[in-house]
Amino acid sequence: MLGTYLNNTRMTSTELYLRLLKYVAPYRRVFALALLGMMIVAATEPALPAVLKPLLDGTFVKKDEAIMHWIPLVIVGLFVVRGLAEYMAQYSITWVGNKVVMDLRNTMFDKLLQLPTRYYDNHPTGNLISKLTFDVGQVTAAATTVLTVIFKDTLSIIGLLAWMLWLNWKLTLLALVMTPIIVGVVRLISVRLRRSSRDAQRAMGDITQVLGEAIDGHKVVKLFGGQQYEAGRFGEQINRVRRFIMKQTTAAAASVPIVQFVAALALASIIYFATQQSNADQITIGGFISFITAMLMLTAPLKRITSVNEPLQRGLAAAESVFELIDQPSESDLGAAMIARARGEIRFEDVSFTYDDAERLALDHINLTVAPGETVALVGASGSGKTTLANLVPRFYHPTLGRITLDGHDLEDLKLASLRANIALVSQDVVLFNDTVAANIAYGVMNGAAEADIIAAAEAAHAMEFIRRLPRGLQTLVGENGAKLSGGQRQRLAIARALLKNAPVLILDEATSALDSESERHVQAALETLMRGRTTIVIAHRLSTIEKADRIVVLDKGRIAEIGSHRELLERSGIYAKLYRIQFEIGAQSIAPSPPR
After folding, report:
1. Are 489 and 482 within 8 A, CB to CB?
2. Which of 71, 197, 290, 543 could form a disulfide with 317 if both were Cys (CB 3.0 to 4.6 A apart)?
3. What is the dihedral sign for C-alpha 129, 132, 133, 135?
4. Sheet containing 423-427, strands listed edge to edge, beginning at the edge strand earlier in sequence
5. What is the C-alpha separation between 137 and 140, in angstroms, rounded?
6. Per-run averaged pLDDT (10 residues), the chain, 597 residues
7. β-bridge partners, 404
């Protein structure tokens, strides 16, 4: 997908650079200060060879005592001014660069929060993290540091060349003959640098992905002996990065000696012709030394300008990656209707849905009405469409065909914020943030809720009994995704969060499927409190937990196969009865005593 995007929308280097400079614009005053400092530094560059001519001619040839006294003072003053200007330029440009990176990261993170669920389905987490951590850092060089070199050194080159032309235009024109050769070398190497930089950034995303998977799954890695396999995957990825970086280094390293060799040829030719002019009394000793000094001083800015191509191409390749994310379309929110507190009637009207690359419909012409306050359980084999159907309600996905309504309002016509304010979710994969217990319960729009309300929600969720035992109670940090809590405790915090939100529509993704009996008892009691008076859609894996549901909808290959109560479906001896019988037999076998030996 990234490749397709870049092929279709890839900007030229100029377009990328101009877009980057838009992020510099808010800091134009500090940036102007940096440019002023660079201009002063560049202006002092030809001043040194300019001082050498009167110094040598006036001191060693004419023996002028006045020149002997004021020239040393001029040199000292020159370097004081140059040092202050250099400091001002460097500090200002670095400040601007860090501000640009901060703004880009904020923009990228804001975009991540607005992207549709489908985007996350198609892009590994590691690659997205790499964009915000690695790629955007490379942009700094292109946006500010490279500009420093180009602006300052270009002015220095112009100043030095102007002095050289004033001293001896014939020798200067001889030096300029080599310029087209240098430009040609730089242009040839640019293409290779951009391509290898692009490849290196993608490979860095793969490294982040492998690293994240190994860290998140460290228990599985240890238990199943996957250390060697993961080490091999990681080694392969870092070797890919190494190869791409070496390609960059090869191209960049080749450009400098080639340019320097061309400059050396020019210098040798100039020295030869200068000696001829000296024999004809067309140039003085001071003038010759001043010219050669200016020419030698040209090599440093020339070297920097030719070397700047590497970070420039790396930064532009990173800018492509950054803007690829920023330019992604945000989650669709075209609805204008607002709904206060919904009654909770949900209708699925001839709803079909398919994932991007799937050949088969995940949902096939679903027609279902859930009454306000009704509990409807979705059951079926893995891949039957249970989770997909539930995910359409908060508009994580959009129906391919048909429509879904809430209290008669088409979901597509509702503002997302209004729709989701009426929906709460409790999943078996509880998401907790590395924050306090209170912050995890009063999350998002509930931030700032009164402590009494948080405690009331935690009490109703049977969570206060363990929260009181925590070191700092509600102010205890729960660790990454609640690592310091048990599975049952995490579930109860998720239920407390849903209780505090007090939404009229509730989606439950079997919240007790991975809990021990004691934890399940607490969580089940909390869920019964949570479901009371709410329209509830339960994604059921363990059928024993949904026997009290008002209706059970059996899905099979994306279609509704059966609808009824627990008793009605058992009496029909259909799919539900078969699933229930299988689970009952497995459960009976798991608790049966072992035969005596």
Report:
1. yes
2. 197
3. positive
4. 423-427, 505-509, 535-539, 375-379, 551-556, 559-564
5. 6
6. 43 80 89 90 81 65 62 81 90 88 89 87 82 82 73 83 79 70 66 70 75 68 72 83 80 72 73 67 68 74 72 81 90 89 94 84 93 92 89 92 94 92 86 88 88 91 90 89 84 89 88 62 80 89 81 92 91 88 62 45
7. 348
